[in-house]
Amino acid sequence: MTKHGALLFYHTLSILILTLSLLCRATCDDRKVYIVYLGSLSDGLYSPSSHHLSILQRVVQDSSPENVLVRSYKRSFNGFAARLTDQEREKLSKMKEVVSVFPSRTLQLQTTRSWDFMGFNEKIGRNATVESDIIVGVIDSGIWPESESFKDEGFGPPPKKWKGACEGGKKFTCNNKLIGARYYSSTESARDDTGHGTHTASTAAGNAVRDVSFYGLAQGTARGGVPSARIAAYKVCTPGTLCSAHDTLAAFDDAIADGVDIITASVAFSMIQEFDVDPLAIGTFHAMEKGILTSHAAGNNGPSGATVTSVAPWVLTVAASSMDRRIIDKVILGNGRTVIGNSVNSFTLNGTSFPLIHGKNASKNCTETIAGGCEQGCLDSSLVKGKVVLCDKYGLLEAFQSGALGSILPNFRAVDDASYVLPLAGTTINNENYNVVMSYLNSTRYPRVNILKSEVIKNPAAPAVASFSARGPNLILPDIIKPDISAPGIEILAAFSSAPISTTPGDMRRVKYNIQSGTSMACPHVAGVATYVKTFRPDWSPAAIKSSIMTTAAISYTHFHNQSTKSFWLVAWPMNDPSSNVSTGEFAYGSGHINPLKAIDPGLVYDASKEDYIKLLCISYDESRVRLVSGDNSTCPTGPDKGSPKDHNYPSMGAKVTAMQPFTVKFNRRVKNVGNANSTYVAKISPNSKLEIKVVPEVLSFKSLNEEKTFNVTVSGSNLPFESRASASLVWSDGTHGVRSPIVVYTVPRA
């Protein structure tokens, strides 16, 4: 009886434990990481961590607050990340002290020649001492501290303002160049597992390292825009380019408090987010209020319109463009014809020609259509060994893993303005050249080809916006033009980690310097220029630095080189875009291509303060939420005084209007004199037959530095077709400076 009772007790206890375990597992599975944003930090005696736990105590029922709290944001702004159920999230979102609650989504990671192309060579004038006191924060996939680009020879101790730390994990050492490193919950080290963060950090502020190349390609000196500046790395991304929103927000919280001066962030969402649920908009806002400008990648979802996801007006949004160097590859057909392709192909085949086989003829277990596309598992290794395989689709992985000698592939995005590193002798070709190769293959019983190692050629059409670069218009604030600026982002050579050089599984090659393309590569170029401007203008606000970069940008370049004096300079001029499509022109390149040397002396700047951005937020959010964000007793204008985004003091001017209707829009602007104390600027309009533009007043006279003047621009017209754009520009000129602002009026697609 006792034995039976004991067995019954243990049986009942086991069922109870199992039930509790299943309940716990179900509850845990129901929990997802959410970010709870509370706005600015409160002044005075206040413990953010205690407050966060207190808030959670009010809503969490089946667990302790400590168990669900993931991270507190308490150094630069107020908030926390926690694992919540839907019910708990809903309760939190209704609290008056909460600005927003949103899921921690995943973000994606989005040079020897590029700086010279912009006229920014190694001989330009620098404030080296000031530059050495500037700290560039890199929010990315970490950094490779052993790279020559980050050695600290000749550097003194970190600037006294530095409040950060070297918390890079095991066997990670900082120095007087790489002065800080942090990593977050999803990783165990600040060491770069993908190479992406190392690439962007060295582009922005890496040392000048001579005689580098990618297997002999693009040989030269790899350097950052500000090689004397310091670097602080914040790792938020893991292998597979996954970057959590709550880690990214934590990086901003730390970087701001650590004392960085400029932030470069080459991470972005694939879809646009409202500002109050966008960790990048939140983090960059609080950076801005501390005087820190953030350069942010526009995204790689182009060329379709309205794909840009970085649209906050306090951020400098960067598109990617080409430079005057291209990397191409040549395919020599057996009939002697040469086909030009796009790839960064480091392989030299041992021979003059090799058998060419179509994918559909290299398979034993797939249909001709599927095999022709070289889809996964279709190519037979015995049939492709020693041969070059022609694929109807981008079947790179299958061609490589099947052991083919080489591959000829259609372009990955059906465009041919960028070359990417391939894991075997291969190239990508456009439709026209694909048809040439296919025609040759079908014309002979024994087709043969040779794929040559890639070569570097001149690109006279540069700069042109990359096809992959995300486009406007701005879906959150339609009257704020995005992106803001373009910079080199195609085939950029920069430092790399010990990660494999391509994303193809099985490609184990490793290099110290790698070639990559993307708005991720353009973004640190602009961060480098912003840092350069700050060395000459240390008291300028983020908006002033941004304005100087935008208003001095070029739409096209002409290069001049004087052989006798060895001087080098650029001439820029507006270029009329023949297309009026809404996703082209300014919605592709913003104010134009970055012009570093002119940016330090713009003449006038369109400045903006935290109060200006608060007024802009008042248009979309109620006063109580705006006060939480601002951390003060800001009041929102009402009625006619509420204003419009068109009145925000932005360096560019944009307006969405109704298609096929008359329109009149007015822009109110304010400029500050940062050029000559006594100066007079005259308004000049580049005309557009579809627009009537009037500037009042047409002349601005200044008697002192930092004096401000206001003006307004009225734009009228009618009958713009659906999904079209009419562009012009305003240039304020004093004979020395040309302060250019694009003017864009556009319509959206028919509903």
TrEMBL record:
Q: Where is the Subtilisin-like protease fibronectin type-III domain?
A: 647-745
Which superkingdom is the protein from?
A: Eukaryota
| Positions of the Inhibitor I9 domain | 33-110
Q: Which PROSITE patterns match?
A: SUBTILASE, SUBTILASE_SER
* Record domain Peptidase S8/S53: where: 132-562
Signal peptide residue numbers: 1-28
**One GO cellular component, as annotated:** extracellular region
Q: Which UniProt keywords apply?
A: Hydrolase, Protease, Secreted, Serine protease, Signal
Any one GO MF term held by the record is: serine-type endopeptidase activity
Q: Which GO terms describe its biological process?
A: proteolysis; response to symbiotic bacterium
User: Can you tell me which residues form the catalytic site?
Assistant: D140, H196, S520
Under Enzyme Commission nomenclature, its number is 3.4.21.25
Recorded hits in Pfam families, A to Z, give: fn3_6 (PF17766), Inhibitor_I9 (PF05922), Peptidase_S8 (PF00082)
The family line of this record is: Belongs to the peptidase S8 family.
What is the designated name of this protein?
Putative cucumisin
